[in-house]
Specification:
Shape: globular
Bound molecules: flavin-adenine dinucleotide, FE2/S2 (inorganic) cluster
Largest sheet: 7 strands, antiparallel
Number of domains: 2
Strand order of the largest sheet: 4-3-7-1-2-6-5
Number of helices: 6
Length: 266
């Protein structure tokens, strides 16, 4: 884990409350893996005190990209940064997605809801480079929640989109689009990131279809590197349920290990 207090913000692009930052940070870029994240200092003052966790959206040469949606005070402050400013970041943090060589020549589903798309671009690029055939499922409430769809397609990735209101692509939840596609083809693996209800529904689908996969989980984080225990989630591992740290043991976990709240006693 590295601290870069002078990571230069090179470019800022935005669509409503979604932001794509390009940041120059050669050392962090060199060590990064898909599914890992950064802890970003958003303010020069103590308000807010804590850094905010944001996934690596893409990494090319010395540059990192992050894609985020304004959720509250911290991400709003982050969104006000301008090109040329320095960011204080540390990372890359956490355990990212596994990239098995068995996925070579196989189709792989990468499912993202809204800002959950964030870690999937980097992942899909690596999968493609390793000879797998990733398909990105990109879902949102409306077309305005899918600002990166054109750019993903332009980078040569296969992208299927869904919107709850039917304003773009498949009308309905992204999980329903996944179910539709599963009637035609069965992927070798499924990766996903997004809101918990989406992940829980996908976990049901994967169980039913006997499909292996991994989810990137979110949790409120204090430190980001294992010191505060603020980010724990219940995980079933080695036949036992235990609390593991999303920042250090995750944020990526195998689907079958995740204990959803209503299953806690089941
Ligand atoms: C490993 C990881 C990677 C992430 N990657 C991205 C990313 O790439 N892009 C992106 O847009 N967001 C990402 N998030 C979520 C992002 O960190 C939160 O939206 C952000 O910290 C909210 O801070 P805030 O001060 O803007 O909002 P706050 O005022 O702190 O909170 C606003 C609302 O968001 C909820 N919230 C706050 N933090 C989190 C959190 N960590 N997880 C879930 N809900 C939260 C709060 O309960 C509240 O309802 C990631 C979270 C984690 C844990
Ligand atoms: S955020 Fe501190 S232990 Fe995970």
């Amino acid at each position: 884990m590295l601290i870069d207090r002078k990571a230069r913000l090179v470019e800022v692009e935005s669509w409503g409350d979604y932001f794509l930052f390009t940041i120059d940070s050669p050392e962090i870029a060199r060590q990064a893996q898909p599914g890992q994240f950064l802890m970003i200092k958003v303010s020069e003052t103590t308000q807010p005190l804590l850094r905010r966790p944001i996934s690596l959206h893409n990494v090319e040469h010395t540059r990192l990209q992050i894609f985020f949606q304004v959720a509250g005070q911290g991400t709003r402050l982050l969104s006000s940064k301008r090109p040329g400013q320095s960011l204080d970041i540390f990372g890359p943090l956490g355990r990212g997605f596994s990239l098995s060589s068995e996925l070579r020549n196989r189709e792989v589903f990468c499912v993202g809801g809204g800002r959950g798309l964030a870690p999937l671009h980097y992942l899909a690029g690596k999968l493609k480079a390793a000879g797998a055939r990733p398909i990105i499922f990109y879902g949102g409430r409306s077309e305005t929640d899918l600002p990166l769809k054109g750019r993903l397609k332009a980078s040569g990735l296969e992208v299927l989109v869904s919107t709850d209101d039917g304003s773009c692509g498949f009308r309905g939840l992204v999980t329903s689009l996944v179910e539709e596609k599963l009637k035609q083809r069965k992927p070798a693996f499924l990766y996903a990131c997004g809101p918990d209800p989406m992940l829980e529904k996908l976990a049901d689908i994967c169980r039913r279809e006997k499909l292996a996969g991994e989810f990137s989980l979110e949790s409120i984080m204090g430190c980001g590197f294992g010191a505060c225990w603020g980010c724990v989630k219940k995980i079933r591992r080695d036949g036992q349920e235990k609390y593991l740290k999303v920042c250090q043991d995750g944020p990526v976990f195998p689907i079958e290990e995740i204990v959803w709240p209503e299953n806690e006693h089941g």
